[in-house]
């Protein structure tokens, strides 16, 4: 069995552009394997639950806008749940279902990560090449990450870039924060 075949995963619905971005940075695989010390893994653990009664998994089709996240094997990990005010034992053998709230939290996290990478790319591209037009930089970002312009609009990326630039200043000193997926 290959590495991906014996891995227990959870599915997360994401936009098509984010799925294409993840495929491009993950060597064509739709399975993300988080580091056990990453924010992504902490977020996943926080939202893992027991599989609900009557739950029937739906097989994915290649065109679906889902990615899979590998559940790291853990015997017992203590996790404090602030809203429930209790300590949970998280064992991915039993807690291996991502709640609806968890689905949204992970999708939002991945969208924010995508935006951080996009903004860092734009800041670097435009700082290193003053003659480069914003439109060319956006199209190059999409090309580099195999993102089809049918999946995300140029206008949305341009708007995000201008809002970010306005918020951080246009002096070229853009803060870059990035955590690996």
Summarize the structure.
This protein is of the alpha+beta class and 181 residues long. Helix content is 41%, strand content 16%. The strands form three sheets. Strands 1-4-2 form a three-stranded mixed sheet.
Draw up the topology in text.
Layout: E1 9-13, H1 16-25, E2 31-32, H2 39-47, E3 48-50, E4 66-70, E5 77-81, E6 86-90, E7 95-98, H3 100-128, H4 134-144, H5 154-168
Parallel strand pairs: 2-4
Antiparallel strand pairs: 1-4, 3-7, 5-6
Helix pairs in contact: 2-3, 3-4, 3-5
Question: Would you kindly provide a written description of the structure presented here, covering whatever features stand out?
Answer:
The protein is an alpha+beta fold. The strands form 3 sheets. The protein has a 3-stranded mixed β-sheet. A two-stranded antiparallel sheet has the order 3-7. A two-stranded antiparallel sheet has the order 5-6. β5 and β6 form a beta hairpin. The longest helix has 29 residues. The protein is elongated and about 55 Å long. The two termini are 25 Å apart. The N terminus is likely disordered.
């Amino acid at each position: 069995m290959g590495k991906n075949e014996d891995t227990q995963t959870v599915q997360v619905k994401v936009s098509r552009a984010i799925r294409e971005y993840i495929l491009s940075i993950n060597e064509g695989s739709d399975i993300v394997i988080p580091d056990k010390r990453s924010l992504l893994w902490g977020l996943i653990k926080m939202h893992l639950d027991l599989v609900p009664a009557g739950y029937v998994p739906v097989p994915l089709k290649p065109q679906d806008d889902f990615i899979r996240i590998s559940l790291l094997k853990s015997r017992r990990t203590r996790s404090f749940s602030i809203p429930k005010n209790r300590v949970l034992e998280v064992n991915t053998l039993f807690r291996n279902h991502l709640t609806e709230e968890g689905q949204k939290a992970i999708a939002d996290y991945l969208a924010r990560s995508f935006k951080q990478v996009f903004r860092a790319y734009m800041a670097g591209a435009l700082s290193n090449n003053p003659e480069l037009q914003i439109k060319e930089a956006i199209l190059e970002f999409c090309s580099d990450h195999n993102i089809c312009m049918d999946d995300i609009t140029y206008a949305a990326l341009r708007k995000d870039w201008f809002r970010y630039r306005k918020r951080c200043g246009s002096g070229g000193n853009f803060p870059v924060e990035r955590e690996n997926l």
